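Forwarding these from the shared drive since the link keeps breaking.
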Amino acid sequence: MDKDRCIGLALGSGGARGWCHIGVIRALQSHGVEPTLVAGCSMGALVGAAWAGGQLDALENWARAMTPTRFVQLVDIRPASGGIVAAAAITAMLRDIGLPEKIEDLPRPFAAVATDMETGREVWLRDGSLVEAVRASIAIPGVISPARVGNKWLLDGGLTNPVPVSLARAMGAERIIAVNPNAKRGGRLWRAPKPKKPGWQELMGLLPASMGAELAEYLEADPATPPPHYLNVVSTAIDIMTEGIRRSRLAGDPPDVMLNVALEGLTIMDLHRADEAIKEGHRLAEAEMTRMLERVQE
């Protein structure tokens, strides 16, 4: 491989699905591929910052240690905060794992994408506070509150540039490996749950005959298929939006290699399922390694 060629990683948004970036990077490392720089969006910014700072092991340990109970402890439902997950625990983790305070002090070039809440414009964060940059890039609407950086309120970068190939190119990358954690098999962005078999019939015998008949009539009229719950609605709405933006952006500026990681079973909030996402990212990168090596060596 040409050691002098500048290879850039463009790590896309995807919430919990973005843990797959860790698996992709591990696969690249095992084949001697060491990218020069990283541009990250949302979870891609979080993983990218840890990799650029030489602390990917620490981040992976934190991610794998996440349990449903620990995740619940991150939930902080306060309407005034603008989100339901307290980002304080995530920013504290970034400080605890030993990353430098400023982006420019990282061993490898790093930049994050965010979105200006006032203008809707894309914002590239290439210097200044590392924690603030990552915090802004992961501010998923309806999930994590906006972040104030300087005089701007910033939202998740996935609103404007879900897989930041353009940023990696602007940073000087000659070959770009992009990772999209939001791929969908068959193009379906959401699958309705299968109708559940009513489980109330056995209770009818315990009620007075007249009451049981009335209740049965009411329940029979009610479909057994539950409506999508909050997390499904938020996750799917973001998927719909980012998929359109991603296609538009990459049509005019495609990467040299695109890894589309399909993790339909994970919502953006399933942070406690890092093991699944990491394994799938690693599996796909290994499956595509020959093609990747050919493309970055051209």
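-- next protein --
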Amino acid sequence: MRKTIELSAEESRDYFLKGSSYFNSDLPSYLSFEPILAGVVRVLNENDYKGFKSSNPSGLSGVNYSLLANKDGRFAWRPFELIHPAIYVSLVNLICKPANWACIQNQFSKFSGGAIECCSIPVVPDSDEKGAEAQIKSWWVNVEQRSLIYSLEFSHVLQTDVVDCYGSLYTHSIPWAIHGLVRSKKEKGDLSLLGNKIDSYIQDGRYGQTNGIPQGSVLMDFIAELVLGYIDEQINLKLGQPTDFRILRYRDDYRIFANNDNKTEEILKIVSQELMSIGMKLGVSKTVLSRNVVEGSIKQDKLAGIDLQDLGDANAKTMQKQLLRLHSFGQRFPNSGALRRLVSEFHSKISLQTERPDDLEVQIAIAADIGFVSPPTLPAIAGISSHSISLASSEEKPSLWAKVYNKMKHVPHNGYLDIWLQRVIQPLALPFESDEHICKIVIGESAGLWDNSWIASTDLQNSLNTHAMVIKPANQVEEVIKPKEIELFSQKAWLY
């Protein structure tokens, strides 16, 4: 299992150009961005979009596409951002030029070896592993297990994280991370400088904004790690060698290990000050100090989830009782990683059910409410619902799906949810309406994702045909969502 930064320039380019790297969350099996990326690569080759434009894209507001995913069933949401493919491929080409890649590798080596141990640089799976599985293994070994080992040396652990990390990252800090603050300030605006080019490409897709980077791709995870690595270096300079403390960082989450309150608070102050220099701040509500490292190193929802798993089927013999236990857990720990994991495991279990239960509608109602309260569970809830409704009679199915659909459509700001609702309804040829552009594309309607009006090249325009992302008819997929179809969701649940 290698880190992306350990790849050659050619290997890194191949990796970043995968559809699963472009958008690293689950989509139904009939959707893939791979054909569009491949088409753009054929036109651009190893060049960038600059020679194919008629105007500056930074003057347009819809160059990238925002795909909203609701986080709590109410008014909190996560905006996934689908970077314009021409800009995305250009970014990959730029970063993965051998000289540029060597420069970035050198910077990452400078950031390591100090007080902060970074555990979140994206990893590339071995030949028999999937990407999410490899990342999960990396997190489990380098964060959770390392934290428990530190209980032998330290009595205190303080956990904190950055508020809206991607949305608040100052894009001008990208050249700071690559070239240093002094040179970047001196050569500000010089587009021969790699960091300035990356900064300008990102701004071109985001209406010229300098606050925030797109969320939802491995490439932007990598850029975030580059900037956070620069902050690690600044913190290391302030703290010196870690003789009586340790710090683990997994992307924007920090774990500070020490033997007294004063030391942890001193370190926290320095971390906070350095993050503020790039527009980030720590979340007060998620900053927790524990005086027992073992207890503090494992999230409460995970501990509660372990207790729930250990109760076994003997304590909840029917599917309804097991669903009620999950529902109760979801009320205590909504949107938690442990809930996602438990729901995924229940999906695998209920998939073995072959006969219609007497309480079928009750089971469907409980499952739907879990998804309504905790929308991040939706892919697995869709799988559970699709299996349960498949056991109903053909006369019952339209009514059952209509009830689920009518309930879930009240979740606000959730195009991602609509994509999965469409997945379970489309094979049954039932009515489905959505304003989400990807849903319209699936049924053959004309709907754009990115503003392409700034592109002069007809060939590049043609390569951006959004219908290419539908790799097979949605109404011909299996009615039931099998656990394998949401494998990425299941694997990512174990990150929490």
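Residues 128-134 have pLDDT under 50 and may be disordered. The chain is about 50% helix and 10% strand.

- D.
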